[in-house]
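Researcher: Next sequence.
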Amino acid sequence: MSPVVVPAVEGGVWDLLVIGGGAAGLVGARTAASFGASVLLVERERTGGDCLWTGCVPSKALLAAASLAADARGAGRLGVHVERVRVDFAEVMAHVRAAITTIEPVDSADALRAVGVQVAIGTARFTGPATADVGGTPVRFRQALVATGSDPLVPPVPGLRDASPLTSDTVWDLTGLPARLVVLGGGTIGCELGQAFARLGSSVTVVEAAGRLLGAEDADASALVTEALRRDGATVLTGAPVTAVHGGQVVLEDGRRVPADTILVALGRRPDTRGLDLHAAGIEVDDRGHVVVNAALRTTCRRVWAAGDVTGHPQFTHVAGVHGSTAASNAVLGLRRRAEVGAIPRVTYTSPEVAAVGVGAGAPGVTVRTVGHDEVDRAVAEGRTAGFARLVTDRRGRLVGATVVGPRAGETLAELTLAVRRGLRAQDLASTMHPYPTFGDGPWNAAIADVRARLTAPAARGAIGVLSAARRRWLDARG
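Model: Next structure:
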């Protein structure tokens, strides 16, 4: 292995040492450098993190190919008949790799150096609250940012490791389409990849221990995704804990056995703090291994901050990036900005997509307005009415949550996230002109329905009556 080259810094002390080159580390390092700070980023393998290499980019590239296959097979519903759909898995994976290759330069070490961030490829460990060892070289820092991300979790199910299961990190090494794929886990990753492989031609079984898929999301959204997976040919088994893997079969708690040529484990992720020697800097972790941070993302060491999956905050790339910027700003400028935790959007990129922000329909003291996509003209025109828009408002009419299920729901969610974050009312959304026809009509019409319902309340009707009567008298007086 080549020795780690640690660039020199004026004065011998770095303003910010960033450990980890994923989303949180990349954004944090760039933010600090933009303030004129001297920044050293240390990455164990390659910059870009899970999002570029094994997460967002490759998965969405795979989903795009799978979507085209499904659309071609289903085009007959609109009178377009495709006689035969052939999937070349090698070409699909070539597309996945091409997407990574195209985006890679943006996150490269050269791109970082171009904006003033120095990069060392190697390992880092703390040797004190203001010192670290980077590949054998002592490094001093004024502040540090831990952004080492997370790894896929593989539970200690008897026989599972012996079956050489794939994870979201290793599934991209496949050279052939699995004939019989069993996906363990019905969360976001399991549903996305399970549907994709089913659409590409694998015989897929999704096994979820809980009572339904996407347990953190709206129950109606879960039902629509389950229906879609089954429509695409996947078998969905819920309430089915796995007790063992044996003889090429996944054994369930109730005794059922599911044949599997390939097993994909999608049961969550755990924080990666390997080899960091956090104790040397006085950095505490919780009982799940997450680095403990306060509201401003500072750890229990006053010089060290943390952001991204390594903390206990939601494990999304956009959270990691925003929190990385917040932590770096606080570290370098001495600010105490609080990390955004109240309006975090989340999207499951199945077909239909499930996008949500804020509280759900079951929260106490809220009002829920739902518009089904069978009432949205764009959805009707495209024959994609399996979906809905659901707004959750508080007693004052402020938007506190939303769920959208349907095509490109993630894009529709953007304005709803802003509304939740800024405490906007349904009236604000309803009075904003929206283009027609779009899938954005769903939330808009839900907001309009909320406003109209509130206008029927006794106090509102009384006020309207007073204004209407006053207007009539004024007009009559003018003749």
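Model: The chain has three domains: 10-151+270-333, 161-269, 352-455. The chain is about 35% helix and 20% strand.
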